[in-house]
Amino acid sequence: MRKDLLGLKDLSAQEIKNILDTAKSMKSIIENPKKKTPHLQGKTVVNLFYENSTRTRLSFELAAKYMSANAANITASGSSVQKGETLIDTAETINAMGTDILVMRHNMSGAPHLISKIVDASVINAGDGMDEHPTQALLDMLTMLEHFDSLEGKKVAIIGDITHSRVVRSNIYGLKKLGAEVVVGGPATLMPAGIEDMGVKAYTTIQEAIIGADIVMGLRIQLERQKKGLFPSIREYYRFFGVDDDLMKLAKPHAILMHPGPVNRGVELSTSLIDGEKSVIVNQVTSGVAVRMAVMYMLSIGGFN
Length: 305
Ligand code: CP
Known about the structure:
The chain is built from 11 helices and 9 strands. By secondary structure, it is an alpha/beta fold.
């Protein structure tokens, strides 16, 4: 039994595969003109977001609605958080209204873990500080598996702001469990000490990271989490660490380009790459709805086994 999805660190390879298999079948529902199933009929899903979001929040909401759940959204900026209510009191209030699934994004690492111990509702981590963003990594893996039969032995190069990225941490946990080789590349000032202890190779020139990659994933520069002075300017960042067509040629000929979004055009990736034939960034968004449908449905019936 699993009540919550807090991170991929705690999931087994088999649980990850089971979620991805279920998500594959959920894609057919999204492609169906009716887009309605009874998987979550009678259940209530609440999105509680303390940080901005477009794709994660909307995809959880749509996923819940496609599966016939009652779905509601609450953001810190429009709630009693502004009047000084604590996170625990807010979560208990939402729980007391008959919520079955609480989807949470918070700027503090560990916030969903804390709340999961307090509420009966299933808690899904939609991004906590610099810790994890498990459904993002699951949707990334689902998208990769639409291009490759297996991730075993595939080289995934993740480029950018490694220190502040919860996406990179969840991807490392998940991809390693599915047998991929993961390398990270970015400025030394945005490369956390000890990252190689997670079983990845770290490079401070992105050329070395990208050579021979099957998958290249850019990451957003997280200016909201950074202290000042970690790189001289956006222009200089792009010159040394932005991925463009020439750099992409260092990857394997069949390589795909990914980014979790939102993307800063001309900073992390060139516009021609984002809109080019190697880009699967839009496919990632569609995979996000399918993965969130799978995760919510599986939690509602007891977990991922
Ligand atoms: N990838 C991602 O988490 O995007 P949002 O911040 O728009 O949800």
